[in-house]
Amino acid sequence: MLWLSRVMSQSHRDDNMKMTALLILCSCLMLGTLGKPQFPEQEKDPKFWNAWAQQTLNNALMLQKLNMNKANNLILFLGDGMGVPTVTAARILKGQMKGESGEETQLEMDKFPFVSLAKTYNTNAQVPDSAGTATAYLCGVKANEGTVGVSAAAVRSKCNTTEGNEVTSILKWAKDAGKSVGIVTTTRVNHATPSAAYAHCVDRDWYSDNEMPDEALQGGCKDIARQLFENIPNIDVIMGGGRKFMFPKNKTDVEYPDVAKHSGTRKDSRNLVQEWIDRMKDKRGHYVWNKKQLLSLNPNNVDYLLGLFEPSDLPYDLERNSETDPSLTEMVEVAIKILRKNPSGFYLLVEGGRIDHGHHEGKAKQALHEAVEMDRAIGRADLLTSVFDTLTVVTADHSHVFSFGGYTTRGNTIFGLAPMLSDVDQKPFTSILYGNGPGYKLVNGARENVSTINYQENNYQAQSAVPLSMETHGGEDVAVFAKGPLAHLLHGVHEQNYIPHVMAYAACIGQNRKHCTTNSGTVGLHPVVSGIVALLTVTKLLC
C-alpha cells in the first residue's frame, strides 16, 4: 500500500508539472498571437541601428572638448548595494513602468558621459561592508569593515584604537572651504553611509550610547548620533530617518506615541534635536518631521534644515505614505534649493540606502523600485543644477549576489518567469534569483514551485541557492557614472578611495589645490604637470 501511495503521489506531481508546463507554453503562444510584436518593427532594419550608433558616435566626439571648469558644486549619489545587475534591472523596470519593453530605456545615470569601475574591497575584507566602503569614497582612504571615518589602523569595536586614527571627509573639506554641505538619505542619518561623512567611530552599530558597551563609553568614545551634531556642528542640511537615536530613553515618538520600539534610546538623557533647535533659533534653522512641514518651507528663508521623518529608516518607496513621508526626490529638491544659495557652492551626499535593505531581505521588487526612485532624484538634481559648474557622481558602495537571467524574451516583466522549466526538477523559475538569502524554500523536500505563489507581490522573496536569514553583499566592482567639471578623471578601473580625491580636485578643496586658478572659472593644471603633458605631446609627434 505504501508503494501504491508513493506511485499515486508521484503521478499526481507529474500531472501538476505537465499542467504548469502547458500553462507556460499557452502563455507564450497567446503572447505570439495577440498581434503585439516582441520588439519594434523598425529594429528589423539595419538602418535603424546604424543611425543610432552614428548619433551616439557624434555625441561621443563632442566629448573630446573636456569640461575643465572649476566645480562650484559637488553631488554624490550613492546607491547602497546598487551593483551593475541592479542598475540594468532598474533600467528595465523604469521602462516597463512607462509601458515600454524596458531594455532600451535610459536611466538618468545612463546619460552621464563618463563611466568607470571602482574596486570595493575593504582593507580586511574581499567582500566589503557599507562602513569601510563609505570611508573610502568619502574620506579618500580604504578602511576595515564595520568602521567609519577612521583608518585601517583602527580595529572594529575597540574604542582605544580610535584616537589618532581619525580621517576627515570631503564633506568637511567642503565645509572648511566655505561651501554649504548636506546629507540626504532614505536610511537613518546615523547609518553607515552618511556617518562616514562626519563621524569617527570604530563600530558602525554605535547609533546612540544605548548601543555602546560600557567599556567604550568609559573610554571616551562617542556614539554616532552625538557626533552628527558635535563634530561638524553646522551641517546645513540633514534629512533622513533615525529620530529615536536623538531623544532620551523611553521618550515617546511624536508620530508613533503608542509604539514602544520607536521611543527614544539615549541613556545620557540628552535631547539632541532640541539642542540643535536651540542652537539654530537665530540662524534661520528649521526642524521638520513630516512631508507637510518639509514642503511648506520656503527654501529662500531657510539656511539650516534638520528633517527626521522616521524613528529608524524611512519606509520602502512602494510602502511610503505619500501624504506624510517625503520621497527621496522631494528631499533632494529641497536640499539643493537651500544649499545652492551659497555663492561659494555646495557639497551634497545623497543615499538611496534602502536598495541594500531590499536585497538583504531577498525582496528584489522593493530594491529595484528604490533604485528607480533614486534615478528619479538624479533627474531632479539635473534640472536644478548646471553641468558647467556642478560635478555629479553616481556610484554604489558594493554589489549584491543578485542576478537575472533564464533567456527571457524581450519585454518580459523583470519580475516574471523564465520561458522554460528547469531541466533538473521540471519546475518554473523566476528570472530574478539570489546566490544566497532568505528565499531558499523547500516544500516536501524539493524546491518550491513558484507557479503556486504570487511571485509578483511586493515582498516576494526571490529564490536563492543557499539558505541565509539575510542575503549577502557581492564582491565585484561597481560602476561610477560622472558628469560635469573634470568628470573625465573618473575613467578606467580605480580603487574606490580615488573618488573623493577627484571630486575635491575638481572643486579646489582638500589637500591638492595648487592647480587652481584664482582669476577665471577654469581649473588650471599645475605648471609641472603642464610641462609633462607638453613633453609627452612633443615626444608623440616626433615618434
UniProtKB/TrEMBL annotation:
GO CC terms: plasma membrane; side of membrane
Gene Ontology MF term list: alkaline phosphatase activity; metal ion binding
Protein name: Alkaline phosphatase
Keywords assigned by UniProt, alphabetized: Cell membrane, Glycoprotein, GPI-anchor, Hydrolase, Lipoprotein, Magnesium, Membrane, Metal-binding, Signal, Zinc
Organism from which the protein derives: Mastacembelus armatus
Subunit structure: Homodimer.
Keyword Ligase: no
E.C. numbers: 3.1.3.1
